[in-house]
Amino acid sequence: MSPADFDRVKRVADVVLSGMALAFTAPLQAGVALAVRLRLGRPVLFRQVRPGRYGTPFTLVKFRTMTCVDSDGEPLPDVDRLTRLGRTLRATSLDELPTLWNVLRGDMSLVGPRPLLVEYLPLYSEEQRRRHEVRPGITGLAQVSGRNALPWPERLALDVAYVDRRSVALDLRILALTVGKVLRREGITAEGQATVTKFDPAVVG
User: Fold this and answer.
1) Kind of pairing, strands 57-63 and 109-111?
2) What is the predicted pLDDT for the residue at 133?
3) DSSP code, position 115
4) What sign does the dihedral 45-94-151-112 (CA atoms) show?
5) 124 contacts: CB under 8 Å, gap ≥ 6
6) What does each of the 205 residues of the chain score in pLDDT, given as a tens digit?
7) pTM of the model
8) Would you say 191 and 151 are in contact if contact means Cβ atoms under 8 Å apart?
9) Which end of the chain is more exposed for a tag (fewer CB within 10 A), N or C?
10) Which of 179, 185, 177, 144 is nearest to 21 (CA)?
């Protein structure tokens, strides 16, 4: 199958599967939204511009998991911004459910390199930049190979490896492995970190 044919098949599968998943998880998403509203207040959804295919920006949507201030209204350091509810949502990947709308819209795919921060775009090497040759995904080869516990060079190398090896069989394998990773709550953050460490090529190489 040519890359163009694969992209067409994959897009149809993304629309069908994300539409079914949105309908199936609607009651669960309503419950999560209520919990976030009661525990964290507004906004319920976290929105952030991320680079999509070819680096084209889009707005990523997730359930909010962090707060900016403590009970006295004082700013919190980053390590303390992730709330108890937020940890649970991230550990179970329930915070990702609204991202299915990004898949349905065509901003993302179910499988592909994770959309990272726009500020990272000028930091990538030419090889690492190839991760943007495909739509970003909710899950990907790096996520089933260690998720956020992987060092940055390895994570980005796996993203590029997915671009080179992408196929229907690989996507199905990644989706199946993702279910197991989520159930076991593996690789959510690196050891000793509350949130994902930022990419810095001067530090990680």
Assistant:
1) unpaired
2) 96
3) P
4) negative
5) 131, 156, 201
6) 888 899 999 999 999 999 999 999 999 999 999 999 998 888 999 999 999 999 999 999 999 998 764 444 444 455 556 788 888 998 889 999 999 999 999 999 999 999 999 999 999 999 999 999 999 999 999 999 887 778 899 999 999 999 999 999 999 999 999 988 888 776 555 444 455 678 877 665 4
7) 0.86
8) no
9) C
10) 179
Among residues 101, 88, 107, 87, which one has the least CA distance to residue 26? 101
How far lies 52's CA from each of 30, 31, 107, 161, in Å? 27, 29, 7, 18
Cα–Cα distance list, 170 to 55, 66, 147, 184 (Å): 23, 33, 17, 21
d(CA 138, CA 39): 25
12/123 Cα distance (integer angstroms): 33
What is the token pair recorded at 13?
Answer: 């599968």
Residue 69: partners with Cβ closer than 8 Å, 6 or more residues away: 75, 76
C-beta of residue 94 within 8 angstroms of C-beta of residue 32: yes
Residue 157 has which token pair? 């190398």
* Residues 41/61, Cβ–Cβ less than 8 Å: no
